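Thread: sanity check for a docking pose with zinc ion

Original post by kr_44:
Hi all, I'm comparing my docking run against an independent structure prediction. Below are the sequence and the ligand SMILES. Could someone generate the full complex and paste the structure tokens? I mainly care about where the ligand ends up relative to the chain.
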Amino acid sequence: MSNITRRAALVGAAAAGAAGTLPTPASAQAAPAAVGRQAAGYYRYKIGDFEVTTINDGVRNDKLERSPYPNVKLEDVQAALRAHFLPTDQMSIPFNTTLVNTGSKLVLLDTGNGPGRSPATGLVAANLAAAGVDPKTIDTVVISHFHGDHIGGLRTADGQLAFPNAEIKVPAKEWAYWLDDANMSRAPEGSNLANNHRNVRRIFGSIADKVTRYEWGSEVAPGITALDTNGHTSGHTSFLVASGPGKLIVQADVTAHVALLFVRNPGWNAGGDMDGPQAVATRRKLYDMLATDRILLSGYHLPFPAAGYIEKDGTGYRFTPVAWSPVL
Ligand SMILES: [Zn+2]
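Reply from moderator J.T.:
Ran it for you. Here is the predicted complex with zinc ion included:
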């Protein structure tokens, strides 16, 4: 109701001699102040007896001036953005970690960008606090792969361990690749690849003897099994979270970057897909299984709360997000 309409209504009510207290006239109310910031980014749901919480790490907005994908033309990227009602002059990349309370352990799957990478990322610490979780109480941190947006949150701004009491578990294959000095020396100077090698050493260099390396097929925590989903990186890992009849696949970067675009266009490769054809084969295999078995998916780069279902749709897939529920 506009102020004028409201005032007219109030005058009308007064003229009619309405009983009781009249509301304060609109002209006497202070203008409402815009809040100007988003609510905390965490979302809880149950998988069997486990309580799962998506912990959002924020969104990075990159200007879109040329195609960020090696096998896709700029106009096709823009058409795909338009199909999702997204702006076509920028790419907004969401980041979401997953916290699992198994009843005996508090397990964090990936850690976010960490401090200082871009203006609206590195929010895991704040969103954990908003969700009432003290980082000192996390028992296990499990890493899916060694790209900076997944491992950066292991360190605080002053270089300390962000989860000081947690056992840190990493894929054995990922460790073998990134900590190999010969692989690092082959990365062209100044490339993303070289920068990532350096970042891996910044994060893990001083704690190599404290990091547990796990194999695909093993349980990384009670009810959480590591799955081989290599292609995005050679050691890239997803997780099956299972409790009773409940099942969830936490896929990390099976679809990466602006993940929705790769759901619809599974043949595309993100710049970070280190083995393009293998990344595509892994994506199709996992998504065919998700569609057939109707298993809930959590995707690191899907829009918050990053959980939903996959269906086949033509030559690609369709993602339907979970419906928000006020009760668990
Ligand atoms: Zn990623």
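The chain has a mean pLDDT of 93. Hope that helps with the comparison, let us know if your pose agrees.
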